[in-house]
Amino acid sequence: MMIPISYNIKNVLARRFTSTLTALGIALVVFVFADVLMLSHGLEKTLVDTGSDDNVIVIRKSSQTEIQSSLTREQANLIINNPEIAVSRGGEPMVAKETVILITLPKKSTGAMSNVTVRGTGENGMSLRPQVKIKSGRAWQKGLREIIVGSSIHKNFLGVELGATIRFSGQDWKVVGIFDAQNSGFDSEIWGDSEQIMSAFRRPVYSSVTMRLRAVSDFEALKERIEADQRLTAEIKRERVYYAEQSEVFSTFIKFLGLTITIIFSLGATIGAMITMYASVGARTGEIGTLRAIGFRRRSILMAFMIECLFLSLSGGIIGLAAASFMQLITVSTMNFQTFSEIAFKFELSPRIAFQSMLFAVIMGFIGGVLPAFKASRTNIVTALRS
Predict the structure, then answer these.
(1) Strand 331-336 and strand 113-121: pairing?
(2) I need a labelling partner for 26 at 20 to 30 A (CA). Which of 53, 147, 250, 309 fits?
(3) What are the start-end ranges of the H helices in the chain?
(4) Do 44 and 244 meet the contact criterion of CB atoms below 8 Å apart?
(5) Residue 188, φ and ψ in degrees, nearest 5
């Protein structure tokens, strides 16, 4: 015979103060745990959304990023002359030969200088990334020292307003447009004409070549041909895979640091739950004896105390997860260790993170409640009634 659930709920409510403290302790741990996962997921999502399934990117073999890569003009021309590459209505190959460099700009929040990615691209640079839209001003004109800045750069850095002039590489560059890239990594970049940027930085090589595939299934054939060509010493990746790899180092660091803090906090919350349940067992010894005397068996007592502890942990989990969901309103702008450039991204809550957070809360409740529950179930009836 099972003890009614209403009995457990009444007992939890009867000790409001200790029950609330226990639930809040678990809520704090779930809040930190969920935030760590949301931060890591937000970074991964931002960079994965930067790429497209239809596009591929070619960089120098063994280069981890475009910053480290270099492809000569001859190599770039060899790369774009492959039959798997889509062509525009005008018959031109859908490719963008790009140069990526870093400059420093002052941040609005601190005034400190931080690295910003400048992408020199061609006429197809925007058509290959349909998520990039000019939201004010216009695109740069070929052959001029003009640039457009991503919305995150516009929001977080000084001196990049529409119509302003930025000076880098000894040249003045006019900001003629602000673009929005729908929360992808391109929002943290500055774009301009590739030939002008290569000339200004005296850089005679490209960093990468991005191409639109004629069909997604053509990737393997193109990869085999390009990577087998000894003249190129290049490797090709799907654009989405390439940008996902850019988040690996930073994402791993976030998870390691955050989960370490979470584990320390969880020990405190679990001990708190255990103390609460031990106190509950001690205060209700006579009550336990009465329940045993009227016919409730040991496993019913065990289940009753486990249900109470799991109720507290679930309550704490819901509170912590609800609080963490508000973090989605916050945008983080920080340095990506892999590219050494500034990147802005948001906390992202997913169904998987919600499930993991609630499961973590239940595990803390189970560990905290199992020993007190066993103690309660093994209480001697005579001893309990005498107390």
Answers:
(1) unpaired
(2) 250
(3) 5-14, 16-48, 73-80, 151-156, 194-200, 219-228, 239-245, 248-283, 285-293, 298-325, 351-377, 381-386
(4) yes
(5) -100, 25
* pLDDT for residue 260 is more than 90: no
Give the HSE-up count for residue 108: Cα atoms under 13 Å, Cβ half-sphere: 11
DSSP state of 93: B
Nearest-5° angle of CA 352, CA 357, CA 363? 125
Q: Which own/partner contact pairs does 350-356 have at CB distance under 8 Å and 24+ positions apart?
A: 350/41, 353/34, 353/37, 353/38, 353/41, 354/34, 354/321, 356/33, 356/37
**C-alpha to C-alpha distance for 243 and 345, rounded to whole angstroms:** 14
- If you search the block for the tokens 């609330």, which residue do you land on? 20
Closest C-alpha among 335, 273, 279 to residue 105: 335
What is the model's pLDDT at position 374? 85
Strand pairing of 146-150 and 171-180? parallel
CB neighbour class for 376 (10 Å; exposed up to 12, middle 13-18, buried from 19)? buried
- pLDDT tens-digit map of 323-353: 999 999 988 877 777 777 778 888 899 999 9
pLDDT in the model for residue 387: 66
Q: What is the pLDDT of residue 248?
A: 78
Q: Is 314 exposed, middle or buried (0-12, 13-18, 19+ CB in 10 A)?
A: middle
Mean pLDDT, range 51-64, rounded to an integer: 87
Residue type at 281? Answer: V
pTM tops 0.90: no
Name the least confident of 8-17, 83-92, 233-242: 8-17
